[in-house]
C-alpha cells in the first residue's frame, strides 16, 4: 500500500474502475454466450442479435474494448445469424 496521499487515492480509483470494467465486460460476454447458445439450438433471431450487439456497443462506448474489436465482434455475430437463417 502506498504512503503518499495521491497514490492512495489512485489505488482506490483504479479499483473502482477495474470493478466497473469487469462488470461491463462480464455482461457483454454473458450476452454473447446466450447468443452462441441460441445459434447452436437454432433459435437465434434478429432481436437477440440486436440485444447482443447493444451489449458489445456499450462495452466499446465505456472503453472496455476497442471500437474496432466491437465492430469485428458484431460483424461475426451477424455473419453467424445469417448463416443460420440461410440454412433454414
CATH level-1 class = Mainly Alpha
Principal-axis shape equals elongated
Rg measurement, Å: 18 Å
Uncertain stretches of 5 or more adjacent residues: none
Fraction of residues in H or I helices: over 70%
First-residue to last-residue Cα separation: 59 Å
* SS strand fraction: under 5%
Contiguous helical run count: 3
Average pLDDT = 96
Order of helices and strands: HHH
> Could you state the oligomeric state of the chains shown?
single chain
CATH fold annotation: Methane Monooxygenase Hydroxylase, Chain G, domain 1
Description:
The protein is mostly helical. It has one domain (5-87): Ribosomal protein S20 (Methane Monooxygenase Hydroxylase, Chain G, domain 1), CATH 1.20.58. The protein has helices at residues 5-41, 46-61, 67-87. The longest helix has 37 residues, at 5-41. The protein starts with a helix and ends with a helix.
Task: State the gist of this model.
By secondary structure, the chain is mainly alpha-helical.
Amino acid at each position: 500500500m502506498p504512503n503518499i496521499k495521491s497514490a492512495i487515492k489512485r489505488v482506490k480509483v483504479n479499483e473502482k474502475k477495474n470493478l466497473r470494467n469487469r462488470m461491463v465486460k462480464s455482461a457483454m460476454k454473458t450476452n454473447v454466450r446466450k447468443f452462441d447458445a441460441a445459434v447452436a439450438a437454432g433459435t437465434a433471431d434478429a432481436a437477440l442479435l440486436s440485444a447482443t450487439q447493444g451489449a458489445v456497443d456499450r462495452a466499446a462506448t465505456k472503453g472496455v474494448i476497442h471500437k474496432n474489436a466491437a465492430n469485428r465482434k458484431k460483424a461475426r455475430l451477424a455473419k453467424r445469424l445469417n448463416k443460420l437463417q440461410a440454412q433454414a
